[in-house]
Amino acid sequence: MAEPGRDVTRFALERVAAERGWVMAHSPAEADALITCGPLSGELAAAAEVVWQQLPGPRARVDVDSPMGVESALGHVLERLSDDDFQRRDATNRPQEQPTDSGHADMDMSDHGDMDMSDHGDMDHDGMDMSDHGDMDHGGMDMSDHGGMDMSGPGGIALASGGEDRDGLEMDVLHVQLGPVLGLWPSGLVVTVTLQGDVVVDAHAHHLDEAAAKERVDARVAACERAARILALAGSRYAAAAVRLRDALQMGTEVGSADTGRQIDLDGELAGLLARVQRSRTLRWSLRGLGDLKDDQIEKAGLPAGDQGDVHDRLIASLRLAADPVAAAPTSYGHRHRAVEALPSLLIGRELAEVRLTVASLDLESRGVFPEPEHGPDAGGADAAGGAVAAEAVA
Question: What domain range includes position 88?
């Protein structure tokens, strides 16, 4: 789990965990550890506590405040898991009944710091191959619990109420909360939707943390992260490559891109990924027409002009930005607040799987984004502020 605006720390955590062969768990039940990036408060802290109580023992929980603390935090996880005395005390003191907090039960924890360390071997990403794809498979979109339903029914099972559909017939109506803890989902974003069948008929959205971003992210890194989320939700085998290149871009930002040869190789790899995604008939077939936003919707929501089109268009646009070292990038993402307010109007009438992809394709993270740093004696200002985070990350 990550506090909104802690993307740099989360990137470092995911990278180091992958290097160790650790696997991100998809649910609390299969996790060994809960790792939180940054101090959590309010609803997010309450959600973390619910998730923690759902982890089976032996278990460990640690907090990471900065990228430089990731290595020691993962080492502490191993110490806790092998500490018999601690595990006995934890098992003795934990509640006998698991909490069933409304809106946070059985949450999908992929991409949020839960670690499954039952297998410390190399990470296997081959399962994301979509070469044989009879039906659209949004791998990674675990809709069995929807990221937190109203658990008011017997045994914690949500019950549907009745309501009229657009044809005047009565249909079951289900109220579902997406976030704040959900895999491949913006940190701190909460979207409550009303479903008739699998179609959203009403929606409300808010962000749990409106404070200024704590860590600033290079625009190319942010674009690569956005592309990686879309690819992962679509079940594409290219998602792992996008994450690897995101981490390489972030490391290049941290060291100031001093190694010119390495940067040229990285730019070539990004261009190659863009070409492969553009050629993919499966991705084009799966994503074309989903989350289609018209010019008037973009303007009303305060989103960048480049966000018009469908999910596939935004995937290609994100990869183009990530692959172009001289691309013009926005220096401010002040549109996010307006975009979250306008988000419900963009989601009504869409199927739930389409909602996940639409949200992933829009930049709704609470973070500061800055373009490529200028290399010269006059470089400073916002770039210099970003350099403070970079220096901390490699310390």
Answer: 7-122
Number of separate domains in the chain = 2
Q: What does 101-127 look like in DSSP terms, one character per residue?
A: -TTTSS---TTTTEEE-S--S----GG
Per the CB < 8 A criterion, the answer to whether 330 and 263 are in contact is no
pLDDT digits (tens, 9 = 90+) for 143-182: 444 444 444 454 455 555 665 555 666 678 999 999 898 9
Task: Return the percent helix, strand and coil in the chain, to nearest 5.
Answer: 45, 15, 40
CA distance 220 to 165: 43
CA-to-CA separations, 185 to 61, 182, 226, in angstroms, rounded: 21, 6, 10
Residue 140 CB-half CA count within 13 A: 28
What's the token pair of residue 275?
A: 């070409």
Pair 378, 243 in one domain = yes
pLDDT digits (tens, 9 = 90+) for 271-329: 999 999 999 999 999 999 999 999 888 888 878 878 889 999 999 999 999 998 776 55
Nearest CA among 355, 44, 1 for reference residue 176: 355
pTM over 0.70: yes
For β-strands 23-24 and 114-116, DSSP reports them as antiparallel
d(CA 344, CA 347): 5
Show the DSSP H helices in the chain as ranges. Answer: 7-19, 42-54, 70-81, 84-93, 219-233, 239-254, 260-279, 281-287, 295-301, 311-323, 336-347, 352-361, 382-394
Residue of 108, 270, 286 whose CA lies nearest to 184 = 108
The last residue of a domain, from among 122, 150, 165 = 122
List 191's β-bridge partners, or say none: 178, 205
